[in-house]
Description:
Strand content of chain C: under 5%
Distance between the termini of chain B: 22 Å
Number of helices of chain B: 12
CATH class of the largest domain in chain B: Alpha Beta
Order of helices and strands of chain B: HEHEHEHEHEHEHEHEHEHEHEEH
CATH architecture of chain C: Orthogonal Bundle
Radius of gyration of chain B: 20 Å
Number of helices of chain C: 14
Largest sheet of chain B: 6 strands, parallel
CATH architecture of the largest domain in chain B: 3-Layer(aba) Sandwich
Number of strands of chain B: 12
CATH superfamily of the largest domain in chain B: Response regulator
CATH class of chain C: Mainly Alpha
Oligomer: heterotrimer
Shape of chain B: elongated
Amino acid sequence: MSIVPETNGGNGQKAGLASFKPPFASLGKGRSGTVLRLLRNHTALILLVVLIIAGGLLSDVFLTSRNLLNIMWAVSILGIIALGQTVLLITCNFDMSVAFVVGLAGIVTVLAQIAGFDLVTSMALGLGAGLAVGTINGLLVVYTGANPFLITLGTALLAYSISLMLTRSQTLYATIPEFNELGRGRLFGVVHYSVILVIVLAIVLEFVLRRTAFGRSLYVIGLNETAGRMSGLAIRRVKLIAFALCGGTAALAGLIMTSRTGSTVASAGAGMEFDSIIAAVLGGTSLFGGHGGALRTLVGVLVLGVLNNLLILLSVPIEGQQIAKGLVFLAVVWADSVLRHR
Amino acid sequence: MNWNPRLGLLGAAAAVGMASGMGGASAQDGSFSICVVHNNADHPSITAIVNGMNDEGKIYGADITYFDPAFDPQKQASMVEDCIARAPSVIVVNAVDPAAVVQVLKKASDAGIPTVMQNADTNDEGHQYTSTFVGSQSYDQGYAVGEMIVKATDGKGNLVMVTGKPGQFDVVQRAEGAKQAFADAGASIEVLAEEPADWSKDKALTVMQDLLTRYPQIDIVFGQDDPMALGALQAIKANGIEGIKVFGVNGNKDACDAIKAGDMYGTAMQLSYMVGVYTVRVAYDLYQGRQVPKQMLAPTAPVTPENVDVLYDQCW
Amino acid sequence: MNRTFHFGGDQTAAVIAVVIFATFATTAGEYFLTLRNLENVARQVSLDAPLVFGQAIVLIAGGIDISVGATMAMAAALAIGLQENGTLTAVIAALTFGALVGAFNGLLVTRGGIVPFVATLGTMSVVRGLLLTYTGQQPLSGTDDAFVFWGGDSIGIFPVPLILSLVILIGLSLFLGRTRAGRNIYAIGGNREAAYLAGIAVKRFEMLAFVLSGTLAAVSGVLLASRLNSATVQLGNDTALLSISAALIGGASLLGGRGTIVGAFLGVLALGMLTNGMNLLGVHTYFQIATKATILIAVVAIDALSRTMARRRLAMAAA
Lengths: 342, 316, 319
């Protein structure tokens, strides 16, 4: 038993059993190795391609530009949340409060508008609410060493109760018409702003993750926090930023959702905490930290979007939809795990 | 004029009732208490009921407590038990599931506390333990929408339904009510699909988009509540499609606005505020030991482009 | 073994339970301390208790099971829906289903190498889908009134599910505390690699933990079906979170290797009394949510802090 507190070993077990594998030599040699590596690194992308091809064959309306653009618009909100969640997952933490931050941010923004603030200020306040929740999450996790799953579940409920108290369960409507452009407007009348936003955000985050010191430090913390500390990383600060970022992206998604539907709902983002983690995991992000990327998460989000779309286009009965989503998810994760361990 | 005569009667009765209520209000002894267990508090229609109850409750000096099980029958059963433990004058229950509350209704009855079912009734077995039902049945709401649809489309067209959370009682009932209305009118309306949007406006938007892609021939959309109907409307507009008639349930202000603007073609207005008012009234009667009718059905007022100007003030 | 007191464990759970009890006994005593109310709380808590025990076992083994709520709901549906074939058959089918779900989770984790959080998340979705299919989206009503006895009735002043839960509690506690299998479960949770190297069949016990969790969730489902005499799709949506919170209050840790069944029972009792007490006081739903959230955060944060301090003390002592 080591004397130094086992931080990463502990963190690594947080979500469950450590990925203990017997010492197989990797099959990385030769052509079969290359194929396997390709499969392993891009499981979600391959699945996406397969789904798209299947969709094109099974439904004659799937491959239309209108349908594909619709899919992207539909998942743009989840995409933004999943991107923030990915950044956090890389550090081996997660945020279950995103679902209710979505609602809270929208409510704060609309309340600000009703109170007479202008568009930019109201949106800033909404984003601020998300950043605040994220920061609280970060402070609690970083300074107590508590488990992020439970802490963020707690802040999720807290955010929800605040949302309910602020609105008293009434529906609130935005008072500034320009606000609706955010969620509903299109660039050149073709591509929705929210789609462009999520793509730009993904590219920016990918750059940050791969090319900046901050990004690299995220991976180091996720892979081996002790080593990171010994090499002088400001671990606490980096984690705090990651948590705040996750809250901020959830708030942004909340603003977009409120703008596109035109009204607030406290539980607007319900389910998105799991969906964002599912999307990230599908895209190859590991719950143990140290792996993952923004673009990969987008692929995962698209897989979910295409799946939802196909289930309706192919008139799959409701019961089947639920089962199908669960099985697809498990199949991808299983395949990923099997390929990773070879 | 498309006045629903029952609505007129109810309105008149309400006016008389309010007047008399306000007159003889004062002498209430403070022990008139009501314990209310919703099915789900986070919905505008329930807020309207609560407003009705609170406003009327002031007149009677009622002390009202509200519990919210968020659609969980297990939690609702526990909350009814906790209500019983508080020994109120009357318990009001908005059943998440008609069968799941029967056991605790029996307990209330054994404890000598009268129960009023509100908005969602219990089943026949449970009726032996309850005093009355106040509200409109979701089946009737669905039926009212069905009738509206038949009238507005001459009984012809392709319809898709955007439904609430799968498995919920309201979802099934509203769908069946509408379909029965089609059958009774001998209409040839084809139901192409029923897709769930979990009562969420945004989900209705994305689901409707996909439905539009799948079925270019849609003429009619029935959203099982107004938020979902409006979400579906958004999708229709965003895809630049014209000529689809959208119907909802609730009677929200923005649905009525949409009807005025010609975007929506109807909503079945739930007189939720009045349901709240009447619940308190009948609870007071029970508290005073008076006989009450077995049912107090609130009519569902169909709001259409023809009568929306008249009914607009009642939209909530 | 270090016997330093730290936050977390049976002691903490007992303290929390007592504090909550005392709080409501004084503030809402006239309602809270009635026999009827205490009986109600005991019943409400003991319906969920078996499921919570199962979650505790999985947590001890180093895993987590998010599918328990879905399994419970499906078991309830089976227990009601199959009654025409005989109530006993229905109950056995429900329990078997629970065991099968547990085995499925176990397979995903042991053979698929999938992390329990992710594996049980997927299973939850599949089971919910099966539930929708089986119920045809309609609520199911029971036809056997005698069945209500198990969840809904009492023997004397003791609710039947309470008696059943206590029996299960004793059985599981003995299993975990006195058998080698039980000790192995603690071992694999505490340090999986070390357990493997010590020759423990890690995968077998992981599988066992999940099967137990699934079966116990089904037991809760059967009791719930009995008490409500019906089953719907909406059951069990918050139950996973409740069970994790209760087990954690009772001393289990998300890192595994710790916790007891008694602690988990005290945890679910504490949470049940909290809800009941707040309902009796007429606390508005919004504030109830906020209160539970704050308590959850406080418990988790303090537990983590105390463990960090204990580790630092250990490190300094060894230095």
